Amino acid sequence: MSNSQNCTSSSIIFLLTGVPGLEAFHIWISIPFCFLYATALSGNSLILFVIVTQPSLHEPMYYFLSMLSTTDLGLSISTLVTMLGIFWFNIREISFNACLSQMFFIQLFTVMESSVLLAMAFDRFVAISNPLRYASVLTNLKIVVIGVAIITRGTLTLTIMVVLLKRLSYCRSHVLLHSYCFYPDVMKLSCTDTRINSAVGLTALITTAGVDSIFIVLSYVLIIRTVLSIASPEERRKAFSTCVSHIGAVAVFYIPLISLSFVHRFGKGAPPYVYTLIANAYLLIPPVMNPIIYSVKTKQIRKAVLKVFHSSVTKT
User: Which residue intervals define the domain G-protein coupled receptors family 1 profile in the entry (predicted)?
Assistant: First the structure.
């Protein structure tokens, strides 16, 4: 009994893993990761800055974009310290409570990103299907309520998952498979029954990213139906063009997620470092690509960014 208590105490130390089989090249591997982190942090910070400082961007679409950039910043910061700590200094140890905290925030920002993408799909549906009522449907108050609902949904879901992990005993190897704490990895290290944890984790995945993806697809079915009913080809093109950035954001979120699932299910013979690199890419690709997509494909964001740069150059 005492041994079980020791296993569940906060004195447990987990060992994170860098890139298996390529430990001698960690310094070199860290270079592209540093570039990706710098791009993600600077790009999303710039998007947030221009939305806050430019009155022309104080509209529902850009409020949702600021939420997306916030979740991407949180996701990047959640993994930054442990990942670069391993690559630069070979710091692999992480305490039980610190591991659960990191896992909580990684999963929280992932759930929030999925929720924000759904909110953005609803925003595009309202803007295209009923443009005259757009401002009255998506008022500032309703956007605040949506934001609070997104945070509450993610927090409640992840709190339950963390509480269930804390009740487990960890008597096996404490070596995790990634350079950050991931819910399935931590759960697999337990020497007690994890069926409830597995069921809760699967339920959380289905009711968040699963449900969100279904409603995003449904939103675009309705958007396409509305656009095709527009007589003018030019108007149809303009309506579709307002969705391009969001479609790109959805793609860079779900494609790495699906790829990671396929590798774990069908890539049993793949080298261990393949799993690690894809898992790291899954968390880094959306924060890196979203600012680029919106800066390139959204004229208002591009103009605002150029205006900020021009203003800073003029002052210097």
Answer: 43-294
DSSP state of 57: G
pTM of the model: 0.91
Q: What is the pLDDT of residues 220-274, one digit of tens each?
A: 999 999 888 876 888 888 888 888 999 999 999 998 888 877 776 666 677 777 7
Nearest one of 287, 308, 292 to 116, comparing CA atoms: 287
SS3 assignment, position 85: helix
Residue 159: count other Cβ atoms within 10 Å of its Cβ: 12
Residues 249, 252, 255, CA angle at the centre, nearest 5°? Answer: 135
272-283 pLDDT, tens per residue? 777 787 888 888
Strands in the chain per DSSP E: 13-15, 93-95
CA angle (208, 71, 137) in 5-degree steps: 70
Q: Tokens at residue 17, please?
A: 């893993």
Tell me the C-alpha to C-alpha distance, in Å, between residue 3 and each of 32, 114, 171, 308.
43, 40, 9, 60
Is domain 2-310 given the CATH code 1.10.3720.10 in the classification?
Answer: no
Cβ pair 284, 76 in contact under 8 A: yes
What is the Cα–Cα distance from 211 to 231, expressed in whole angstroms?
33
Long-range CB contacts for residues 238-242, cutoff 8 Å, separation at least 24: 239/128, 242/124, 242/127, 242/128
CA gap 84, 233 in Å, rounded: 50
Strand pairing partners for 1? none
